[in-house]
Amino acid sequence: MRILPLLLLAALPAFGERQAAPARPLMPLYDAAGLKQACDTAIANARRHAKLMEQKKSPTGVFNEWNQLQIGIEDVLNPVYLLGEVHPDKTVRDAAEPCLTQFVSLSTELFQNEKIYKRVEAAKPANPHQAKLRKDLLEGFEDNGVTLPAEKRARVKAIFDKLEELRQAFDRDIRDDPTRVTFTPAEMEGMPEAYLKAHEKARDKDGNYVLTLAYPSYFPFLANAKSGEARKRYYVAKLREGGEKNLAILADIYALRKELADLYGLPSFADYALRRRMVGNPQTVDRFLASVKDAVTDLEKKELGELTAEKAKDLGTPLGETRLERWDTSYYQERVRKARYSVDQEALRKYFPSGKAVDYVLLVSQRLYGVTFREAKVPVWNPDVRYFDVLDAKTGQFLSGFYLDLYPREGKYNHAAEFGLRGASLVARRTPSAALVANLDPKGLDHEELETLMHEFGHVMHAVLSRTDYQPHSGNAKQDFIEAPSKMYEEWARREGPLALFKEVCADCPQLTHEQIRQMEAARRYGQGIRYARQWLYSVFDMELSKNPRPPLVVWKELESATPQGHVEGTMLPASFSHIASSYAAGYYGYMWAEVLALDMLSAFHGNLMDPAVGRRYRDTILSQGSQEEEIDMVRKFLGREPSSEAFFAEITGKR
Ligand SMILES: [Zn+2]
Q: Are strands 386-392 and 398-405 parallel, antiparallel or unpaired?
């Protein structure tokens, strides 16, 4: 996931002044009072800057002025957004919320500014990057209502303000969900030694294990705990995360989005959102999703059949009377993977100790993209957060920096995501920075966690290798392309070429053999039908609400009930589906859409994923360009041909 608080926004050093790029711009670490003050100052400065922009009649200079405006805003907004999700002190997290609300309000206000709009409209672009910026800005102005009558324009602003308030409440309900699930020592049967040891401090006075809903506790439990009853309890608790309150919030969110579309005379929010995406319209998404469904339906049935047989064998029940419940899927998948491919996810943690796995990702990225990462001790928001400078390997030039915040803790953002901190701007001599936030097992990673780390690091590279003229284009892309660099990078956690480099970062770790890597890949492919059927379901759910909003749980139940495993009464997945409460609305399909391009782009490596020449070309044509060119043109340039969906359909049907 990639998080850019406000896609087209930015703030300010004095108007028109050229700033010298500081050697290593670090992120400000506010306390609650400092945060509020920085927020108020940045917003007041932005308004002042906008006033000056308004007063100029001539369009000359408007692109650079807008760039400076956005830079001044993001310098405060982006750190505040991140701190609101990760700061260990709840008072700081809480202080972030009203600040973000003010920034959203400011953003709409700027994009509704008719005088600035007129100047952008009248501006004659001096080069293609300015032309793209002009186009993006005009769309941004229109999407914020500048061309609507005053009354409707005011309503657009009120809707955006409310949507931000609801998004915050939704995330807060997940982040601060107090749910704990208690298991007796007997119910821990099947759990690996390392897991039990890691959860020793989670035991109560009676010796029971009191577990949170965090990934490193939940996922291994579902995959390993022998007791179906215990797995069910955990599954239902996890799928109630966020609670009833969030269902109501989600309903309000989609209703407001529908109203937004109405103001524009568009049939639905899907139409409103998708006209700015690669797909262009809802019909293209519907067709794409239908072809995904066609491709995976039979495979999903076959896989579920095999897992049901495995369960029947395990419990000694007649096959005809055995039902594979949702809390059984990952447990029996894990058993089949162990039996068929001798791949034991828990055992893999010895191969990928967390610190070494990070070293691996860093090593691979440095070699591939011709960059050097240099760790530096800098002030951070929590002691285990690390910071790195990024330098060009050849010239030694300082390019950017990034933070890594990888392990779970109380009150922290509960998914994995990359957060943009600073955008690049060559015209402002500004270097980018970003933060990777995840919830990995601090002891060692299983294969999926290694893929997650690689995925998010793909976003980080997109952000910090950006060399765009203007800040709004930095590390940015249409929402259905933004996952392409990260989906693509997952492959570096799978192939022997790069994985062979693991011994360079850990001579003492057990080394995966050629045969093990082959088996690990086969094990990963086992389950593609189930995995993509689920991705399809999430995407269709999001599209349904975006086209025609109804109560989210009602729609979810209908859709999930129509799947082979059905709906589990009492669960409410939409309550924790934070993607669709924020910028991935009418956009969850984008994961698969971007994967089409990601897997196609892989073909340029011709099997040698560590080819530095292709890595460099990818850095230059895709990563460094952000959104200053059209995505489809960049992909064509990189591939030297039209893109194709062949590799994607081979992947999801397990045939690649
Ligand atoms: Zn992502």
A: antiparallel
